[in-house]
Amino acid sequence: MKINYYPTTAISDGQNGEGFVGHGIQVIRDDLVLAGKVITVQLPVGENGAVLEALLLAEEGDVLVVDARGDCNRAVAGDFVISMMQKVGIAGLIVNGVIRDLEAVRSLDFPVFCKGTTVVAGVKNGGGKVNVPVSLGAVSISPGDYVFADLDGVIVVPKANLEEVLVKTKQKIVSDEKREKEVLRDQASTIAYLQKVTQK
Ligand SMILES: O=C([O-])CC(=O)C(=O)O
């Protein structure tokens, strides 16, 4: 199922600051954003075989979340595997590990969030698992949860909370816009606001 993207900062405000996976997982190109339902892969260190299994199970619009145990030596995917993700309709890739072929991957217009790059391919000896609960940093993610990701980072929304979080997120976007318009009108309105919020 395709879901609408909202800025990660607004989702975070709508979720009381919960669910951020940490600053180590960053987008590969500043303009790329991502939102969708999660399919997961858990890999032994250095492996990437199960990523290919997940490509056959993914539904159109799914986001592939790969727990590579934080390994920064062997790639979870390069431009070939990531091109196949795109072909089967996966919306984006989030990994607590590294990719390779960065220049070619950037040219695919496909949102990838990772810890960085490597030159070394992953091995395909088996042992990975598809659609099991995984973790990115301190955040647990189950298949069917939702993620939002952009230049500010990656945030997870548990499936059961999605509706409520989206309502709060939209309310926050509207109230932030209203506040900005009022407060930033001119210097006097800015100072009046600062005086009000700092009054003891
Ligand atoms: O085949 C792999 O495991 C990684 C790779 O180089 C690619 O996807 O282009």
Automatic annotation (TrEMBL):
Catalyzes the aldol cleavage of 4-hydroxy-4-methyl-2-oxoglutarate (HMG) into 2 molecules of pyruvate. Also contains a secondary oxaloacetate (OAA) decarboxylase activity due to the common pyruvate enolate transition state formed following C-C bond cleavage in the retro-aldol and decarboxylation reactions. GO terms for molecular function: 4-hydroxy-4-methyl-2-oxoglutarate aldolase activity; metal ion binding; oxaloacetate decarboxylase activity. It is an enzyme of class 4 (lyase). Pfam families: RraA-like. Its EC number is 4.1.1.112, 4.1.3.17. It comes from the Bacteria. Signal peptide: none annotated. This is Putative 4-hydroxy-4-methyl-2-oxoglutarate aldolase. SUPFAM superfamilies: RraA-like. Substrate binds at residues 78-81, 100. Homotrimer. Belongs to the class II aldolase/RraA-like family. Mg(2+) binds at residue 101. Keywords: Lyase, Magnesium, Metal-binding. Transmembrane segments: none annotated. Coiled coil: none annotated.
